[in-house]
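Worked problem 6 (solution included).
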Amino acid sequence: MRKKLLSLFIIFGMILNTSAVSVFAVTPNELYDQVWKLITKKYVDQTNNSQDWYRWRYRYKDKLNTKEDAYVAIDTMLSSLNDPYTRFLDPKEFQEETSSIKGSLKGIGIQIGIKDGNLVVIAPIEDSPAEKAGLMADDLIMSIDGVSTKGITVDKAADKIRGEEGTKVTLQIKRKNSEPKTYVITRAEIEVKSVSTKMPIETQIPDNIQYIRLSSFISKNAASEFQNILNETKNSKSGYIIDLRSNPGGLLLNALLISDMFLKGGVIVSTVDRDAYKDTQRAGYNQITNKPVVILINKGSASASEIFSGAMKDNHRALLVGEQSFGKGLVQEINRLPDDAGVNITIQRYLTPSGADIHKKGITPNVVVELTEENIKNKDDVQLKAAIKALNEMICR
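Solution. The predicted structure is:
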């Protein structure tokens, strides 16, 4: 049985472009060869993890008799890149990824990854079973249904956590400075809500400030939903607080479009491909508002969240408040394969407008504010309070 690879929403959010190859029927050997060619042409690291990539091309020549054989061989080949973002998806997984982009998924609504050798929660999705159960960014997942996660891969963990709607999964969670705690969570169908103006905790906010929670850049409707709020409030509000905490990222296009709503010219992001070609994306001159902005980030803010917050910070358009972001500075491309399978390939790394490579480093906020267990217990959102204070000072200048 080949290892199953997880969909877009079970790990930290991807920044995605889309592409396609020929979708006519092919043999298992031809399918394998198509993936080999895609990596040869597109993968960001020309050394392919410092190996002789050509050795893989005919390694399974005339040995792949079924699609399942091809899937196993492709997984094995891609794993040699040591890149968790470059992965093969069978037709079912590829369909799940497509459905997720459309705005719905099944599971507990959690993004996971490996950090410092541990299985970690990157972020729970807003209003998901995981969030309602109390899971938080940076929680360590010690066991799944009683089985230790020591040495587990992200894809195997995802396979164990996901399941049919209505079924339960038991997670043992270790939080910083706390004893391990067991959570029993019921899986469900989850609507991915991109934009909300609902306050996360009972916090008084001045009437002249508009709070916007952007929970992900995944949905194709995220930018239009965000734009609608700006259009409705641009003449009635004095400033904006944009909450990107535990936002795992999503579509690159959404990050560009939302940045463009606030910037008037200037660089949004630069991407660098395998040939060291640098492509710079700049904002236009059709900004919707020039009102002051404060952005909230934390260790669960990743990928497209970091592109947007990095663009706003480096262009001196917003003040960042909160904690160091996650640090995912790579771009993936979705490639559709024959028989509706797919392969996601890391094709670029990105730089913020100042030229910073934030991969595995993250973005440092202008104002660092830690949210403690005691704060959460007392429903005291000190980060949001700091953002309100900072924005008020910006408005009064």
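Discussion: Confidence is low (pLDDT under 50) at residues 1-14.
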